[in-house]
Amino acid sequence: MNAGREERFREELKVLRRLPERKLNDFKRHRVKVGPGITIRLQHNVYSVPSHLIGEWIEARLYAGHVEVWYVQHMIERMPRLRGEEKHRINYRHIIDPLVRKPGAFKNYRYRDDLFPTSRYRMTYDVLKEKSPHKSDKEYVKILHCAASESETRVDDALRMLFDNGSFISFEAVKEIVSSAIRYSRSRMYSSMM
Predict the structure, then answer these.
(1) pLDDT digits (tens, 9 = 90+) for 157-188
(2) What is the pTM assigned to this prediction?
(3) Looking at the structure, do residues 45 and 110 belong to the same domain, yes or no?
């Protein structure tokens, strides 16, 4: 089938140039400084980064489908890229440590809605606000910190259990259920090894 195309192919070969020595970048580099809000701004969108980077210059690499955050020649974060403008992607794990030190900041946090990993977390905050409005922010931040340090899924399961049983929701109740689940899974792991 290609027999009739050989002459045209030879013509093309005469004008073809050599391929580049190395692969061309398929991303755009941006050098940005991490602001006090633990965020960076890329192409009119806001992304959170780990809190230890506040005030540091980082390199952000924008690919078609994701963003990479590089610091001191190491990739420290990879996240889906936002489409459009004036959007935000805030990871609660990035900002939880400063929030624990200053839980009152939760109430007026600009991206507060991003700090509810599931709808059950949002329901928890609403219940806490209704039951004890003056302590709700601090209590919720402690629950969120437990999710970041232990397991988001285990905390969500603990919240589900408390809701299903009609129990009082508090950090202490959540922590007890999560600790019990961790002890149970460790004991099962040890018994299976023997």
Answers:
(1) 999 999 999 999 999 999 999 998 777 666 66
(2) 0.77
(3) no
